[in-house]
Each structure stands twice: as C-alpha cells, then as structure tokens.
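Consider the tokenized backbone below.
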C-alpha cells in the first residue's frame, strides 16, 4: 500500500459504487437515496498491478455547523487533508452544480493531487456534463462509469506515475532497522550515532487504547490543534504523520487509531484502523505507548508494548492524565512495579508521566525518546563484550545438559537498531532460555541498555571465529614488525 486515494464529491454521485469496484467487493452500502454513507470507510484497492488504500467518504455537504451534516463534512475534509490523492467525482448526467464549484475550490487549496472524474458518463446524455467539468479548473475529466466498470484503464494511467512517486517516498521514510555490523570492527568501532536531519527525521509512533489522549498529546507537542480530538473514543481512524521540530530535533510523529481488543473490533473500518496502527509501529524507530493513568496496563496495553518489542523498536511508556491523579507517588511506584512484572522483556524502559491537556511532562518525554533512540543505536566493542562474557561465565557457568558442558567461546555485536549479539558456543541448540535471559539482563545492566529490545543469537563452534582470526592476524603482524626491528 504505497498511497491512499480518497473518493470525494456531492451525495449520490456514485462514490461508494466506485469504492466497491476498486476493493473488489461490496463493502460500502449503495442506494439511490443520497447520504447513505455517513462515515469514512477504508479498503484495499486494486487496479491492475497497483495496490493502494481507498477511502469512501460521506457526500460533501455545505453545512458547517455541528449538525450531522456538518460533522460529516468535517470528517470528509479530514480525509482530503490526509489522503495522498483525491478523486473528485461529479455526476456527468446532472452536470456541474454550484455545490461542485464550491468543493472544487476547496480541493484546489487543500489537496496536492486531485483527479477529476465525471461519473455515469456512459452514453451521449453525459457529453454536456463532461464538457462542463472542464470549467472547474481541475484539468481534463476522466469519463467513468463506476457501475459498469468503464474508464478504469484511464484511471490506471493517471494513478500509475503518482504511485511510483509515493513508492519512492515510502522507501525513503522507512526506518533503517537490523543494521548489520562488520565482525572485523574489533575494538576500533565507530560509536557515532546516525545523524537526525530534516530529510531523515526521528520517527515516532504514538500508540495506545482508544481515548488515551494520543491526538491531544501530539497537538500539545505541535502547539496547534492539527488533529481532531474529543471525548468520544475512536475519533482517529487512520494513522496520520506530522512533521515537526521538537526542541531542535526534526521528528515525524505518527498518530494512530486506538487499538481495541479484538473481540470489540466489529466494524470493518476499525479493523483497518488497527492494521494501520500496526503499520505505523513498523515505520517508527521509537514507539510511545500511551496509557491512561486511571486504567493502566490493561491487556491491550501489554499487547501493544509487546508488539513494539517484537518488531524491534525502542519503547517509551507515557502515562497520560497525570494532572488529575491524586496519589501520585504511590501510583508511580505501583506503575513501575507492574511494568517490570508484566513486561520483563522491556525491563528498565523509560516510564514518563505526562498531561496532554496541560503540557506538563513533555520535556521529560522528549528526553526519554532521545535516550531510548540512542540506546537503540548503541554499539559495544568485541573486546568489551568478551571481557564481560568471561566474568558472567565465571559467576554463573552455563548448565551441562545430558552431561555435556556448554562452552561459550566468544561474543561479538552483529547488529544495531536494535542491538543484536552473537555468542559462539558448543551445543547452541541445548542452551536453555533461562541462561539466555541471564545474559540479556546482564547486557542491559553492564552496558546501560535499559528497555530496548536486545537480540541474542547462539551459534555453533563450527562457525568462523572472526575474533580469534583477528587476534592471530595481529600477533603475526607484531612478530613481523619485531623481526624487522631485530634485522
């Protein structure tokens, strides 16, 4: 899914019919009566070899108050703002109406890519309406018949070059993870962190249950009400990214739809929203798991944090609505105890208390995010690792399953983002999980890596030993050097 396409237009111009055709099934209700679609609906669109997210929207109404029509209009405008491409549909048989002209003006201002489509354009009766569409100033209209499938090749030819551009953008925005390190680095490793720039900002996903305050938090960080908020749970329906400079650090923050328990996800749209949140985690380097202070660490919170750890992302836990918490010290102690007990794989991850409403704690959250990112990128030299490993084995030797002693030969760091280490040993398949956990916990403590996912791989002694080879090579070079001096 390289881009999103929002279908917009007046009520009853055929938006849902086109949506159903692009997703290949009847997800959206279709009826001759206008106004059947009231909410946004997402689906996986297919057109030839193109794959994209297609969004069916409510018919654009001219109401701007808090009536149902006014709220529907605001939701549709939000889809316009967030979609990569807008397909503006008019009814070719009716022709261009004053309402069409109003919304064409809105789209010119709010959307970077607008495709004008004259629907119901089969037959000569639609010719006059197609000609009128040129007057909207949105380029040449596509003649479509969503009901009969006419005009799909022409739509493909317009979308294909846009898709290529969005595919390049997605490749640029994808974070670099599981970065391979050279085993020849030894003690002379480069410990400099990757540079955070406007082109490669630090990428953060804010995830959590519905109504935890994710959009409110991001609005407070931005200093403006960019994202729709309210007391109702589930206002945010798709993952939205915003760019900002937060205290001098370029960042891209993904606001995600609240992730509910699977049993409560009934609407197709909400299922898609959850999958969008999962995609946001994959696009992030640091994941902020936002909890509600009143009901922290429910099962779904634990699943979200565990998902981020399994994806290998740095994790920061933020407890929101702290301004209304009465027994702060006692609550904080209980939270830390519960976190270490329920998520031992993220032991030591930063836990920050914030108030998205007042902005208190945002400076601590910023510092925790940067610290978590720095640890996620940490590199440890081979010499340090092997001196540490020797001490760990002396203190607590590995077990001897079936009388066979497991010997740990040497250790090196193979990856960063997150840190990944390889231990060369005999009988790696017999190494118990408890001893691996002992080593991982020791790594966290010895090299100051709290909270970040750590990958530890056991390899058989038959594998090449670059540490030993490097030592022999250095010894040979020293002997040759001394021989020259003696000569």
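A designed sequence for it:
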């Amino acid at each position: 899914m390289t881009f999103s396409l929002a279908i917009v237009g007046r009520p009853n111009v055929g938006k849902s019919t086109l949506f159903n055709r692009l997703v290949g099934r009847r997800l959206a209700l279709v009826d001759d009566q206008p106004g059947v679609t009231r909410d946004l609906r997402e689906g996986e669109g297919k057109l030839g070899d193109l794959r994209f997210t297609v969004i069916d929207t409510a018919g654009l109404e001219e109401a701007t108050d808090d009536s149902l029509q006014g709220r529907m209009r605001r939701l549709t405008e939000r889809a316009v703002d967030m979609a990569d491409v807008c397909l503006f549909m008019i009814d070719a048989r009716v022709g261009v109406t004053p309402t069409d002209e109003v919304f064409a003006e809105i789209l010119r201002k709010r959307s970077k890519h607008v495709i004008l489509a004259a629907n119901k354009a089969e037959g000569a009766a639609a010719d006059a309406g197609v000609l009128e569409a040129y007057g909207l100033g949105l380029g040449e209209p596509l003649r479509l018949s969503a009901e009969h499938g006419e005009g799909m090749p022409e739509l493909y030819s317009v979308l294909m070059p846009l898709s290529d551009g969005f595919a390049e953008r997605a490749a640029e925005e994808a974070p670099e993870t599981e970065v391979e390190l050279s085993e020849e680095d030894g003690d002379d490793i480069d410990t400099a962190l990757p540079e955070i720039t406007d082109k490669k900002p630090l990428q953060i996903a804010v995830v959590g249950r519905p109504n935890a305050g994710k959009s409110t938090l991001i609005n407070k960080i931005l200093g403006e009400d960019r994202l729709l908020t309210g007391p109702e749970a589930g206002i945010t329906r798709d993952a939205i990214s915003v760019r900002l400079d937060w205290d001098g650090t370029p960042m891209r923050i993904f606001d995600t739809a609240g992730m509910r328990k699977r049993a409560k996800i009934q609407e197709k749209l909400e299922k898609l929203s959850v999958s969008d949140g999962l995609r946001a985690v994959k696009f992030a380097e640091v994941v902020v798991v936002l909890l509600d202070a009143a009901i922290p660490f429910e099962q779904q919170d634990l699943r979200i944090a565990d998902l981020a750890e399994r994806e290998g992302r740095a994790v920061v836990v933020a407890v929101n609505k702290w301004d209304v918490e009465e027994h702060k010290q006692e609550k904080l102690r209980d939270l830390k105890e519960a976190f270490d007990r329920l998520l031992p794989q993220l032991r030591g991850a930063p836990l920050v208390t914030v108030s998205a409403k007042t902005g208190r704690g945002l400076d601590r959250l910023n510092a925790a995010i940067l610290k978590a990112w720095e640890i996620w990128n940490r590199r440890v030299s081979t010499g340090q690792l092997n001196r540490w490993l020797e001490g760990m084995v002396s203190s607590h030797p590995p077990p001897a399953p079936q009388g066979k002693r497991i010997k740990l030969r040497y250790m090196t760091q193979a990856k960063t983002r997150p840190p990944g280490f390889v231990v060369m040993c005999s009988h790696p398949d017999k190494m118990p999980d408890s001893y691996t956990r002992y080593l991982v916990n020791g790594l966290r403590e010895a090299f100051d890596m709290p909270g970040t996912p750590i990958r530890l791989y056991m390899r058989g002694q038959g594998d090449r030993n670059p540490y030993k080879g490097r030592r022999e090579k250095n010894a040979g070079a020293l002997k040759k050097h001394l021989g020259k001096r003696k000569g």
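Confidence is low (pLDDT under 50) at residues 28-38, 227-239, 258-276.
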